């Protein structure tokens, strides 16, 4: 057999092996818990009422590295709103002079109507002491990660222009350290290597391009950040090939790290016909998470979004863990049209079976929002919330939940 024929045999054997792996790639299903038909009683008007509109004093920078064109610098102070994907850490006694620390990405509003809107969707850190007025902390680079250049990008399809981008920021603070996670889309592996840490982790995980890559940066002061490290990618064995890995969100339980993400049902690798599924992964170090076959499909005990529209499903999520309770803030809508509309809150004690609250946080025009614990006692959890609207506006809200009523809500 000639060398050429040997190569062809090896090549097609490789393709068959990859195809077989994809065919057998399924996350683990959770044994479902049935609905106990109990409601959470006692939700006050504060649960539904915004305190005020948030203003963020920052410039959205869509310049590629090495560029500084005025046309790609946009003021998104109110009323030029262009805010998206908030996540907040709250420090009752302050951290480096501020109680509220938020990461978000500029996108909608003034920015979102521009044809180059993806260029602005870069992780941006801001701080506040009242939850309403925000600015970058002194010394922090804004945005934290610059726009992906066209040379660093590759095409997702034949229709869209070549433009890689960042999105879907989320962070945790544990053991004196921020861990910031976000998603890179259509970014070449060699570009991620160039921007990232020169680590064994990155070397192993960046051998080939993947359409979407989840990355992490860490900081002990919120100002100086480590180079990015790759967490997982939209390719085998982490995900069905080219799935979207939407809005990954992370929590630390005191024992391990847990991530939740939305996967679009665009392949045969999912258990049913719902438009999307929420996948849960775990990790001991916050960097190496479960591969897809070792992850689990989250069970929703009730799915009130289907009462609005039978085809609705989770589109973006944000996870919180506090005092033994997992919470998911869920923006649901017509996933097949790549959008959300309504905002729900769900709770769980095991992080696998979630029950959704009977009252919506927002009925219309909502997008990926966040809740965060402020002060907890033996009886209650006091939350803050940044409610994000598809107009690019953020609003601030506070509410309280009773632990006893949460337990009653979940009990069989």
Could you explain how this protein is built, in words?
This protein has six helices and 25 strands. The chain is mainly beta. It starts with a helix and ends with a helix.
Structural class: mainly beta
Please describe the biggest sheet, giving its number of strands, its sense, and whether it closes into a barrel.
5 strands, mixed
Strand content: 35-45%
Q: How are the strands of the biggest sheet laid out side by side? A: 1-17-16-15-14
How many extended strands?
Answer: 25
Average pLDDT level: 93
Span of the ends, CA to CA:
67 Å
Global Rg = 21 Å
Shape: globular
Regions with pLDDT < 50 over 5+ consecutive residues?
A: 6-17
What is the element layout, followed by pairings?
Blueprint: H1 3-23, E1 28-29, E2 52-53, E3 55-56, E4 59-61, E5 73-75, E6 83-95, E7 98-106, H2 109-112, E8 124-128, E9 133-134, E10 165-174, E11 177-185, H3 189-195, H4 200-205, E12 212-219, E13 229-233, E14 246-252, E15 257-264, E16 276-283, E17 296-297, E18 299-300, H5 305-308, E19 313-322, E20 325-333, E21 342-348, E22 353-356, E23 370-376, E24 380-388, E25 394-402, H6 403-410
Parallel strand pairs: 1-17, 3-9, 18-22
Antiparallel strand pairs: 2-25, 4-5, 6-7, 7-8, 10-11, 11-12, 12-13, 14-15, 15-16, 16-17, 19-20, 20-21, 21-22, 23-24, 24-25
């Amino acid at each position: 057999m000639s060398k050429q024929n040997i190569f062809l045999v090896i090549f097609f054997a490789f393709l068959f092996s990859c195809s077989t792996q994809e065919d057998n790639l399924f996350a683990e299903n959770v044994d479902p818990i049935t609905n106990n038909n109990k409601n959470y009683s006692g939700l006050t008007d504060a649960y539904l009422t915004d305190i005020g509109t948030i203003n963020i004093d920052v410039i959205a920078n869509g310049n590629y590295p090495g560029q500084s064109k005025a046309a790609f610098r946009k003021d998104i102070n109110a009323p030029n709103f262009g805010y998206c994907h908030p996540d907040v850490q709250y420090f009752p006694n302050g951290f480096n002079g501020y109680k509220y620390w938020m990461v978000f990405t500029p996108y909608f509003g003034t920015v979102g109507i521009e044809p180059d809107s993806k260029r602005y969707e870069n992780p941006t850190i801001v701080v506040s002491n009242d939850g309403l007025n925000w600015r970058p902390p002194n010394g922090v680079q804004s945005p934290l990660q610059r726009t992906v250049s066209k040379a660093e990008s590759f095409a997702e399809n034949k229709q869209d222009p070549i433009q890689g981008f960042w999105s879907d920021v989320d962070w945790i603070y544990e053991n004196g350290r921020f861990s910031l996670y976000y998603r890179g889309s259509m970014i070449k592996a060699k570009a991620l290597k160039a921007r990232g840490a020169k680590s064994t982790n990155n070397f192993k995980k960046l051998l080939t391009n993947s359409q979407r890559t989840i990355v992490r940066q860490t900081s002990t002061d919120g100002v100086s950040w480590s180079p990015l490290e790759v967490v997982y990618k939209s390719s085998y064995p982490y995900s069905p090939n080219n799935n979207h890995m939407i809005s990954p969100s992370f929590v630390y339980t005191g024992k391990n790290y847990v991530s939740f993400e939305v996967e679009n049902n665009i392949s045969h690798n999912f258990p049913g016909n719902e438009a999307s599924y929420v996948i849960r992964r775990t990790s001991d170090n916050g960097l190496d998470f479960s591969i897809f076959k070792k992850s689990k499909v989250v069970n929703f005990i009730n799915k009130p979004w289907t009462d609005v529209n039978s085809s609705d499903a989770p589109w973006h999520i944000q996870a919180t863990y506090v005092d033994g309770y997992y919470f998911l803030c869920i923006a649901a809508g017509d996933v097949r049209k790549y959008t959300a509309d309504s905002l729900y809150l769900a709770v769980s004690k095991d992080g696998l079976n979630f029950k959704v609250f009977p009252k919506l946080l927002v009925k219309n025009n909502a997008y990926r929002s966040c809740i965060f614990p402020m002060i907890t006692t033996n009886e209650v959890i006091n939350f803050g919330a940044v409610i994000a609207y598809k107009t690019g506006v953020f609003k601030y809200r506070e509410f309280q939940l009773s632990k006893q009523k949460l337990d009653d809500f979940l009990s069989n």
